Amino acid sequence: MKISSTAKALVAGVAAGTTAAVTAVQDSQLTAGEGVTIALAVLGAWGITYAVPNRKQPEA
């Protein structure tokens, strides 16, 4: 199965952002600092995941 780097990064960003958002709203409030943390989690996941190359598929 071949997954593009863009799709892989998009899924990682959504997962990181969702995790940070769920943690941030545990007290039913979202502060500016928590919003920045969510944004940095998404951007960090996008950047790191996009930069790591996919493993080469073995030739069958």
Strand element count? 0
Q: Calculate the terminal CA-CA distance, rounded to whole Å.
A: 13 Å
Radius of gyration, in Å, reads: 15 Å
What is the molecular shape? Answer: elongated
Class of secondary structure makeup: mainly alpha
Q: What is the helical fraction, as a range of percent?
A: 55-70%
Helix and strand element order: HH
Question: How confident overall, as mean pLDDT?
Answer: 90
Strand content: under 5%
Number of helices: 2
Poorly predicted parts: none
Largest sheet: none
Provide key terms for this protein.
60 residues; mainly alpha; 67% helix
What does this structure look like?
The protein is mainly α. The chain has two helices and no strands. The chain has helices spanning 5-24, 32-51. α1 packs antiparallel against α2. It is elongated and about 55 Å long.
What is this structure, in a nutshell?
Helix content is 67%, strand content 0%. It is mostly helical and 60 residues long.
How is the secondary structure organized here?
Elements: H1 5-24, H2 32-51
